[in-house]
Write a structure and sequence with these properties.
By secondary structure, chain A is of the alpha/beta class. Helix content of chain A is about 30%, strand content about 20%. Chain B has helices at about 1-5, 40-45, 75-90, 105-115, 145-155, 180-190, 205-210, 210-220, 235-240, 285-290, 310-320, 335-345, 345-355, 405-410; strands at about 20-25, 30-35, 60, 120-125, 140, 155-160, 165-170, 200, 230, 260-265, 275, 285, 295-300, 330, 355-360, 380, 395-400. The chains are: A alpha/beta, B alpha/beta. Bound molecules: iron/sulfur cluster.
Chain lengths: ~170, ~425
């Protein structure tokens, strides 16, 4: 099964606001950049160089209350566009989880993760098995996997693609 | 409350907090946002989806932006609403559920005003201030980017939340509004105190509080991390609802023996008018700490205020007074219905005579529609958030306070404690 990821980590703090730290709501709203350019502005208020340094498949690790404030879906879109494969955080605001699942950007909630991973460590995550391995330190950490229907949504690639699947199975 | 007010699960099973469950809308309506670039007909067409879940429940209106036009959207709001409305008709949505300018407002206002949301129900709608409907005892839940899916399949999912309860005791000081109570909670307990939980508000102060203020507190519960904010529906709410519709409902409330992750008791007498200070949404101060800060703009409106009560308190303060010559005071009623009532009661006349700039109903200045802030301007608003650039230029600064604080500040041209204008009663 899919939903396995391996990449280098980037570490961020707590209470990142969807419209400020993650990506500027104002700049999108007022047309400074477009939806297609969200990835180039990801985290720029925290680290202006981030979008240049991040590589496709890298993993974002953050603290508590990831994505606070409004529920604008451009936050996970921005993270997805800049190449991040999965976001691991101590805790998520649930609206972020919904928006992230809706566009097929995987995420893992794991209290204590920031104590186990340093920036630049390579980690391997398996969403089905509920295991994250810090390849750099050799430590493996367990987490409670999402229920099957959420994993199905993520695997379908988006909530709407999952909807197509429901219709095909006669469940719509 | 949640266990009861969400759609009945097939086996009536008990779900521990943290479990994920699939849930259905049980309210009178489910809202279809029809502006700000959300193009549901195109999304349906792209996927070949040819029907919607329950046409009788779909509600269609150009609610956020109304007549406003945003340069980055490929089609104008009018065009977008026209497409949505035509498509909704094809999908079998009844005419009375398709609303247009002149008969609408911010969705979180009109869902309450039009009794589209039912006390004790599970209500799904566009964005996360949907939780304002907790003011009438409904469990509001924002599906966010899942709108299309919900309109097609009628369900979404949530992670069973725990609850935290805030009991507000004693008596509020004059000039302290529901908004100040919520900001006080944020100041005292921080932005994660209710993270992913239901924030329930109770106690004598809440019992006496108007439905408008309850809606404000629930609306702003987003900023203490809450999944939803809620006040048990009482007689006031039930009478209000029955006066508006015959639609059947079950007024559910929290169990007397409900388990709470935490209960906070707050002495209402300790709460001062509160001000959120830029640039972070969670920096809250007592008004005394920021009094005197010069402002160039003031704003009353948005889903956090813009209801009858906010407009009325502004009128009470402005009566016979003038907006400071250095200030533009934008007042945007949240809905056409609210504006109509403010016209009938004379509230609008007072505000206009004072020199306020009254805009067409809707979200107004909250996301920078109408009178957006210019470079380096300083605004005090009663709206939801103050992230840089939210109301216009990124260099502009936005303070947030109650409608009373905003009105008093508009008179003086600087942040002002409203109590001095409310003493004479
Ligand atoms: S008033 Fe502001 S926060 Fe409320 S729905 Fe409108 S834009 Fe969103």
């Amino acid at each position: 099964m899919a939903l396995k990821f391996k990449g280098k980590t980037w570490i961020f703090g707590d209470n990142l606001d969807v419209d400020n730290e993650i990506v500027s709501f104002a700049k999108l709203h007022y047309g400074v950049f477009t939806h297609d350019q969200l990835g180039e502005h990801c985290m720029e208020n925290v680290d202006p160089e981030f979008h240049k340094k991040v590589k496709k498949g890298d993993i974002m690790v953050a603290g508590t209350n990831f994505r606070c404030g409004h529920d604008h879906p451009h936050a996970p879109q921005s993270i997805q566009q800049c190449g991040i494969s999965v976001v691991v955080a101590e805790s998520f605001d649930e609206n972020y989880i919904k928006n992230s699942v809706a566009i097929g950007l995987p995420l893992i909630e794991l209290p204590g993760i920031k104590k186990k991973v340093k920036e630049g460590d390579v980690v391997e995550a398996d969403l089905h098995a509920g295991i994250i391995e810090n390849v750099t330190t050799g430590e493996s950490i367990k987490f409670k996997p999402f229920p099957d229907f959420l994993l199905d949504m993520l695997e379908a690639g988006s909530l709407e693609a999952y909807g197509d699947k429901l219709i095909a199975e006669g469940k719509g | 409350m949640l266990k009861k007010s969400w759609p009945k699960q097939p086996d009536n099973q008990k779900y521990p907090p943290g479990d994920y469950v699939q849930v259905r809308n049980t309210s009178r309506s489910v809202f279809m946002t029809s502006d700000l670039g959300v193009n549901m007909p195109a999304a349906f067409k792209k996927r070949g989806w040819d029907k919607i879940w329950d046409p009788q429940k779909a509600l269609v209106a150009p609610e956020h932006a109304g007549a406003w036009w945003r340069p980055i959207d490929k089609v104008s709001q009018r065009e977008s609403h026209r497409q949505n409305a035509e498509w909704a008709r094809q999908m079998g949505v009844p005419e009375e559920n398709i609303l247009d300018l002149g008969r609408i407002g911010i969705d979180h206002h009109m869902s309450v005003e039009g009794a589209w949301v039912t006390p004790g129900s599970f209500y799904l709608c566009g964005d996360n201030h949907t939780i304002s409907v907790g003011g009438v005892g409904a469990f509001g839940f924002a599906p966010s980017a899942s709108n299309n899916f919900i309109m097609r399949f009628g369900w979404t999912w949530l992670r069973v939340p725990g609850s935290v309860k805030f009991i507000i005791k004693g008596k509020l000081k004059k000039g302290v509004m529901g908004r100040d109570v919520l900001e006080y909670i944020l100041k005292e307990y921080g932005p994660t105190v209710a993270l992913n939980k239901v924030a329930e508000y109770a106690g004598p102060i809440i019992d006496q509080m108007s439905i408008d203020s309850r809606c404000t507190m629930c609306c702003l519960s987003v900023f203490i991390g809450a999944k939803t904010g809620i006040v048990n529906p009482d007689k006031k709410v039930l009478d209000w609802y029955k006066a508006r519709t015959d639609y059947p409902f079950e007024p559910l409330a929290s169990d007397p023996d409900a388990q709470y992750a935490a209960i906070y008791e707050i002495d209402g007498a300790k709460i001062e008018p509160m001000v959120v200070v830029p640039p972070h949404r969670s920096t809250v101060k007592n008004i005394a700490e920021v009094e005197g800060t010069p402002i160039t703009n003031a704003f009353i409106g948005s889903c956090a205020s813009g209801r009858d009560e906010g407009l009325a308190v502004a009128a009470k303060i402005m009566k016979g007074r003038k907006v400071n010559s250095k200030v533009v005071f934008n007042i945007t009623p949240g809905s056409s219905a609210s504006m109509t009532r403010a016209t009938e009661s004379g509230v609008l006349e007072t505000l206009l005579k004072a020199g306020a700039f009254v805009c067409a109903p809707g979200c107004g200045m909250c996301p920078g529609f109408y009178t957006p802030l210019a470079e380096n301007e300083v605004c005090i608003g009663s709206s939801t958030t103050n992230v840089p650039g939210r109301m216009g230029a990124e260099s502009a600064k936005v303070y947030l306070g109650s409608p009373a604080t905003v009105a008093a500040s508009a008179i003086e041209g600087k942040i002002t404690d409203p109590r001095k204008y409310l003493q004479e009663e």
